[in-house]
Amino acid sequence: MKIYDWPTGPYPARVRIALAEKNLQSRVQFVTVNLRKGEHKMADFLAKNYSGTLPVLELDDGTFIAECTAITEYLDTLDGAATLTGGTPRDKGLIHMMSKRAELELLDAISLYFHHATPGLGPDVEIYQNAEWGIRQRDKALKGMHYFDAVLKRQRFVAGDAFSMADITVIGGLIFAALVKLPVPAECEALQAWDARMQQRPSVKNRLAMSAPTDAPD
Fold it and tell me: Mean pLDDT across the stretch 85-105?
């Protein structure tokens, strides 16, 4: 298998963490796509992923799977024992719900803030920017942090009692928040404590060791 990504990107981090949790690192070859040069928007990459986003998984038969949730689902079920996406209908429902909320309320909001209200990936890539919209998305992300703080006050993990894809999505959001210097509010003590615990997981600590790091987010 191949994974097309940008090593320090928060979205690629989600798949890298999933790979490590499933102990699949040795089965994957990483291919770096340079975001600063806009390689993810060029024709040869768009042929792999119409959306022009990272990461993308290429299977040995030439199939391309994009979107972090879809890639994680595939990786999690390769061994027939899902541990990240839920083993029962109830768990699957809760995990996918909370992962989607983490995307909408945190990770994607920070991405829009980055691309619209900061220099982003630079003028050659950021063809259109709306700073007002970006600031609104920053505020949405801060509200999202308060939401997940409330969730984590009453349970150990984002979707319940076990580490899951939903936790990985929030981790990706907080990785992005750190890259754009958007700190978790001081009053969000449960979220901060959870994040400190997550940073000690080997899959999170060692995600950059899978290939040579660079310095820009996705």
Answer: 97
